[in-house]
Amino acid sequence: MTEHRTQHPAHSEDGRSFTVPDAAGTPFIAGTLLLVSTPSGRQLALVEEREQSVDGGPEALRGRLLGTVEGARFDPRGGGPFVAAEVELADAETLDLVHTAMGAALEVGVNLSPPMRPARLLAHRFNRHTFWCGQSGSGKTYALGVVLEQLIAHTALPIVVFDPNSDFVRLGELNADASGPTAELLRQRDIRVLRPNTAGTDPLRARFTSMTMEAKAAVLRLDPVVDREEFNAVVHLSDSFSSIETHELLPELLGSDDRARRALGLRIENMGLLKWEVWAGHDRDATSVIDERADATVLDLGGFSTPDQHLVVALSVLDELWARREERRPVLLVIDEAHNLCSPTLTSPLAVAVRERLVQIAAEGRKFGLWLLLSTQRPSKVAPGIISQCDNLALMKMSSPVDLEGLATYFGYAPTALIARSPWFRQGEALFAGGFVPAPTLLSMNARLTPEGGSDVGVPLR
């Protein structure tokens, strides 16, 4: 690779970053991996930007140092400062060495920057929150499926998918042409799909009596001060709710001599709560199924007749996991279309309760093994308190200047020059940055092994 060595060497003042003052005649662009040869050894480096001098001078390269390469060993702790170091394009063998040394084993795509090698993620670094974003048509949901397949096949980490558009309901199936080790492992995995209207063993349900008092109040839209009498009636009825059949509850409340109970009965009747199909009754609720810790549990939230019902399921599941956090049983919570559950503009009591629980999990859940993967089309519509806690970024095509500016602010570990390329990504292309990838990486995603549940509808031409 000596034909790509720079005429003017690189230098580093801190052993963490590097500069090539004169990059004229080199093909190196942002995202390229380089080998820097110093008197004390070789270091792997990432070009983060190629900038033109303001006075018309030569272009310069700037970037970060990723670690030292010594024979068949890679040490991410890096080396020290240097001057007059020669720079060349990293070769495929070096990248493979880095992947092996860091444990990057989940193959999800192919690098778009030299050297062209499989792009791999570090499974053990999904113990940090992950933010996944891309505008409509970017391939965001399809690509997320590729990563979930790898996690399900190659780890023992239970995954719970909050699926509002039925995009992941076929994770338990395999495409007819699916083959290879990952496909074989997926065949052996326990993948469960809970749907609102199903003849299966476990429909998607929540149990009102098992919800926290705060959650019950959110369902009933009760304020403990403004609606203090009805709220107090719920407090005293909580223990007896489970012993009352659904068809007996309303007549009992409406026929009560107690004014607060009658008012509560009117509230339940006016809201039509007893007609909601979300209530478990004699069925198992979602929290009971999740507690069995299948390899993946998909919650198909989109099939309810009223929008609040999917919030009931989300709140009951999140509250239960939070209540049992001290058990420290790891789980990855995948929130697809996260702006539906995490938007700061949502104002209904149920929506606020769900968002605040997610904010709490984002801030404090990591140490208990509650890890989030949030996927959205619009980062600006997700609560900032959640985004700021994410240590992994997956960015697909995004044209909104507001969103891109926000991402550059929140994710300082992702090179700005690479984020700026997002509007020109093709479908299925992405930037991965953060702890779950050895270095910020531009890649094209692999094909899925399972069918996508919510693929686009074609336009009739005749």
Write the topology of this structure.
Elements (H helix, E strand, L loop, with lengths): L9 E3 L4 E4 L12 E6 L2 E11 L8 E11 L2 E3 L6 E8 L2 H11 L1 E8 L6 E5 L7 E4 L6 H15 L4 E5 L17 H8 L2 E4 L18 H8 L7 H14 L4 H9 L4 H13 L14 H5 L5 E5 L7 H16 L7 E5 L3 H4 L6 H16 L5 E7 L7 H4 L4 E4 L5 H10 L5 H4 L9 E6 L6 E5 L17
Parallel strand pairs: 10-15, 10-16, 11-13, 11-14, 12-13, 14-15
Antiparallel strand pairs: 1-7, 2-5, 3-4, 3-7, 4-5, 5-6, 8-9, 8-18, 16-17, 17-18
How would you portray this structure in words?
- The protein is an alpha/beta fold and about 450 residues long.
- The protein has 3 domains: about 1-100; about 120-205 and about 285-445, P-loop containing nucleotide triphosphate hydrolases (Rossmann fold), CATH 3.40.50.300; about 210-275, no CATH class.
- It contains 14 helices and 18 strands.
- It has helices spanning about 90-100, 140-155, 180-190, 215-220, 230-240, 245-255, 260-270, 285-290, 310-325, 340, 350-365, 385, 400-410, 415-420, and strands at about 10, 15-20, 35-40, 40-50, 60-70, 75, 80-90, 105-110, 120, 130-135, 160-165, 190-195, 295-300, 330-335, 370-375, 390-395, 430-435, 440-445.
- The strands form 2 sheets. It has an 11-stranded mixed beta sheet with strand order 9-8-18-17-16-10-15-14-11-13-12. Strands 1, 2, 3, 4, 5, 6 and 7 form a 7-stranded antiparallel beta sheet that branches.
- Strand 8 and strand 9 form a beta hairpin.
- Helix 5 (about 230-240) crosses helix 7 (about 260-270), helix 6 packs across helix 7 (about 260-270) and helix 9 runs parallel beside helix 11 (about 350-365).
- It is elongated, with a radius of gyration of 26 Å.
- The model has no long low-confidence stretch (mean pLDDT about 90).
